[in-house]
């Protein structure tokens, strides 16, 4: 039947009685999810809703990023590189959404934000446990980051566990070693609770993979996927730093840091240093 009077007929078999059936809202627990947007500014500020939802959607995506990174790590452990790369491909797409999403928050002007910033007290994204867990899973380990979670035991335990897990990169390097590539022992036996640091001998291993990439096709592909992951992560950090800059200028952060300067220094960090160093060594 065609659409009459610009109104769609609801087909007769469309299910409408949910007294004993699973509905959309109950499956997704929307009562819980949609009850969680509670502005605290007094008097209420219109734009606080945007601020809350921007963060909550980011946290939901971070939850999936962490879930997928953990899966990718398990796949690598089981020598299933293809399975790991499938998860990484999904993470890359989520990162793109997270980075694009800054455009929504950029509609918040500095004067609008200033009107409810005071209500935020000392809360800050610096205290995002999922963000920190993602950083750890990618190899940016820093035990000092646990301190802000001391009053939240479950978060602290989650991060402590993540600190002791090998990162995604650690697992890739172990897989490479199992395949007979000469990954240095110092890399394989490193203390995984420490930040990953560049190993020159490992660059040689990647030079050999890139020189003979038809021989090592899947590893070569994995390397390029990891480079994408790091790039995407940096794009997110950059958009955050620029959004902060246009919103609060050089004010110090609610979390107690210097603000923009502190965020800029994160842009100097790297997850997979050898994968960037290898580029300099590609013959002309
Ligand atoms: C107007 C919006 C925002 C401003 C002004 C802002 C500002 C800041 C500042 C100044 C810091 C440094 C820590 C501090 O002293 O507070 C920070 C850290 C952080 N923010 Fe935001 N932020 C904004 C939005 C967001 C959003 C939407 C997210 C998404 C989850 C987010 C996540 C984070 C994270 C994860 C950190 C820690 C970064 C790190 O350790 O390198 N921020 N933010
Ligand atoms: N650190 C921000 C406040 C802020 O953005 C924020 C506050 C509470 C919860 C999350 C936040 N997002 C990122 O830091 C500021 O200094 O204005």
UniProtKB/TrEMBL annotation:
Keywords tagged on the record: Dioxygenase, Heme, Iron, Metal-binding, Oxidoreductase, Tryptophan catabolism
Pathway of action: Amino-acid degradation; L-tryptophan degradation via kynurenine pathway; L-kynurenine from L-tryptophan: step 1/2
Cofactor comment: Binds 1 heme group per subunit.
Cofactor(s) essential for the protein: heme
Catalytic activity entry: L-tryptophan + O2 = N-formyl-L-kynurenine
Enzyme class at the top of the EC tree: oxidoreductase
EC number(s) given by UniProt: 1.13.11.11
Assembly notes: Homotetramer.
The name this protein goes by in its record: Tryptophan 2,3-dioxygenase
